[in-house]
Amino acid sequence: MKETLAVRFHQTGGTEVLKIEKLNVPSPGKGEVLIQNYAVGLNFIDTYYRTGLYQTELPSGLGFEGAGEVLEVGEDVTEFKVGDRVAYPHSPIGAYSKYRTLASHWLVKLPSSISYEEGAAMMLKGLTVQYLFRQTYDLKQGDTILFHAAAGGVGLIACQWARHLGVNLIGTVSSEEKGKLALEMGATHFINYTTEDVKQRVLELTHNQKVKVVYDSVGKSTWETSLDCLAPRGLMVSFGNASGAVTGVNLGILAQKGSLYVTRPILATHISTREKLVAASNELFDLVSRGIIKIQIGQKFPLEQIQEAHKELESRRTKGSTILIP
Ligand code: NDP
């Protein structure tokens, strides 16, 4: 048994519900390992659990992603040993913690060329881009897509992956500064939605052809505009709710706007087996190890400043990935 500091919440709500508490971490049982997180990933989904948009049993820990070192190994664990560098994109909720015991099947080995901080900043977000670009729709060189929140954590990985695939990525952002960063990372164009009309700009940039795929993690506030940016029979990939969830959709809108397709994917489906998790992770590690994707850590907070970290993310002040240091 080991003692740890961890973030917990006993009720849903604003950032004030997040508390640092002392917890006992059990010794690893069959199939489990005890790890020390050197860095933890902050993801927008964490805010959905905190506010109650997504439900979990309370009181609860928070966070899904981290990177660290194996300290102890339980019975029947063959893939990992003490001292291994590991990372995980999507563990059971509770990653905001210095020490954790968890089933080893959530972990992958972190290549030595990738730091713990990069590991925590890239697993959930990078594997999301992997499935969005390679599985939800198999993007090909020359395709043009619209990607919302292009300067965010997922966004800056998407910009670089799109450049690697030869895909033209038009990114939406809330400021010129974020737009310039998206361009630097591989976006072909940016649209500052606070000063420009997104649909109009997409028409101009595509010579009225519109785009094949829209990747929309903003949700409620962008849903209809996103559909308006799609070419006939285009694909709307609605994969997040940063502005609130999309609800009450009349399917007829897909007919009116040109026989459109819609999907609402989540990462968990795409890494639901060990084979899928390892294969997708290896593809991501390969691109990062070769420098094709450089993980952009825009912000770093000590775990104790978790309230501040959530505030920054939700108020659109962050760029790239945000990590927490326990
Ligand atoms: P980001 O770093 O991208 O932060 C969210 C960004 O969304 C903001 O920086 C902001 O960029 C933009 N945004 C637009 N409208 C709002 C709003 N009303 N409130 C807050 N932000 C807004 O976060 P992540 O990289 O962690 O995640 C990006 C998105 O992808 C999230 O919606 C997340 O839920 C989703 N996601 C979905 C997954 C899935 O499998 N379905 C997996 C991983 C992430 P700007 O200032 O430029 O507008």
Automatic annotation (TrEMBL):
Domain Enoyl reductase (ER) stretches: 13-324
Keywords on record: NADP, Oxidoreductase
Source superkingdom: Bacteria
Protein name as it appears in the record: Quinone oxidoreductase
Gene Ontology MF terms in the entry: mRNA 3'-UTR AU-rich region binding; NADPH binding; quinone reductase (NADPH) activity; zinc ion binding
Pfam families linked to this entry: ADH_N, ADH_zinc_N
PANTHER family: QUINONE OXIDOREDUCTASE PIG3-RELATED, QUINONE OXIDOREDUCTASE-RELATED
Classification via InterPro entries: ADH-like_C, ADH-like_N, ER, GroES-like_sf, NAD(P)-bd_dom_sf, QOR-like, Quin_OxRdtase/zeta-crystal_CS
Keyword Oxidoreductase: yes
A GO cellular component entry from the record: cytosol
